Amino acid sequence: MEIIEAVGMKDEIKTARIDALGMHYRELNEKVRKAIRDGYRRIMLDHVNGQRYIGDGLSEDAEIVINGVPGNDLGAFMDGPSIYVNDNAQDAVGNTMNSGKIVVRGHAGDVIGYGMRGGKIFIAGDVGYRVGIHMKSYGEQVPAIVIGGHAGDFFGEYLAGGIMVLLGLGRSASPVGDYLGTGMHGGTIYVRGKLDDSQIGREVRIYPIDEEDEKILGRLLEEFEEETETNLSNVDALEFFKLKPFSHRPYGDLYVY
Length: 257
Description:
Radius of gyration: 19 Å
Number of strands: 12
Order of helices and strands: EEHEEEEEEEEEHE
Low-confidence stretches: 5-10
Structural class: alpha/beta
Largest sheet: 12 strands, mixed
Shape: elongated
């Protein structure tokens, strides 16, 4: 493990650089944890190629920068750190994440933010299926997922809380697949672009954007633009649709109590 000293804008940031080329994921994750235990607060990972579980369960105030493509469950159960991926990511980014931030400057796979309870996930490109499934909020914990490109089917499935934003950048057709918001019973989904009623789950309705929505989108999109280095100068909040559930208990008639 190569250790370097880096200087931040105000204070020195103790930085570790790890070459992950050919390294087993267990060894890599142990090196990351050791670096944090040793007081390094910025961890640079080079030549990452599918190693799983990076950043899982970490709660320290640390920043992990990944050069390469991390494997599944990036940042799972994470509670505080920030992770920046300068490439694509695979499935289950931010699985059951509690707080912190994950930024992917490329594309990502399926089941992003599964059961997420707090923090933010920004994906610059496209994502796969079932993004935000079972995402929830509690008290002041309001998780947010912002996707720059296209999303597959079941976006926001069983959403119980939090905010999901789909920008659809570079898309002339609809930016999302079918079954949007299926089983949704909390939270808010914002979609920019074309949307047909046939794509929407039976548990949600489309509403116009109001002044409060513009403020929410403005804050999130400003941060997304900065973190992902995406140009959003042509994006207007009025181009979005808002989706909300019309019931907090959509399957109540199916229960036996």
